[in-house]
């Protein structure tokens, strides 16, 4: 990550935190009343092939004793009504501003993967994670909806895992590597703007 990209991340994160502080506090209070605790979902993600970090999100699913892998149709019944709305507008990812400030993530980059997939596909993630993971990115903008559609059709955890590994990881990696070859501040700004436009629609 270049110095300019890091400074841009910090500047935008601080501005957004200042703007969203009161609305976010109201949202957290509302979720506490409607859904109860825990408010946040914290999960390990990988910043590099050998370095993990705690990624923060607002909880959108019912809590279960054990959970693993990506979310597919097999977990659909766990998504709360409020969770669906949070996901629709990506409001569940607001706590990741803290991850950006800490330097675990950037605003733009590949979505941070779970450790299990990094360990299963080391050749892919050795290249992908040369870029700092991001809240949004080329793969997020151009493949996320299709990925959700693919995984939503899965009925079991094993089917979800198979589809994710065979059809999602390779395609996302291709897009992430295209971003890595062309990344610059202007491209980052374009992708952030497109993300805002997409969420607004």
Name a few traits of the molecule.
201 residues, mainly alpha, two-stranded parallel sheet, 11% strand
Helix and strand pattern: HEEHHEHHEHHH
Count of separate DSSP helical elements: 8
Uncertain segments: none
Number of distinct beta strands:
4
Largest sheet: 2 strands, antiparallel
Shape by Cα distribution: globular
Radius of gyration: 17 Å
Estimated share of beta-strand residues: 5-15%
Written description of the protein model:
This protein has eight helices and four strands. The chain is globular, with a radius of gyration of 17 Å. The chain has helices spanning 3-34, 81-88, 96-102, 115-120, 122-128, 138-152, 157-182, 185-200, and strands at residues 40-48, 51-58, 106-108, 134-136. Strand 1 (40-48) and strand 2 (51-58) form a beta hairpin. It has 201 residues and is mainly α. Strands 1-2 form a two-stranded antiparallel sheet. A two-stranded parallel sheet has the order 3-4. 27% of the residues are buried. The mean pLDDT is 95.
Report a brief summary of the structure.
The protein has 201 residues and is mostly helical.
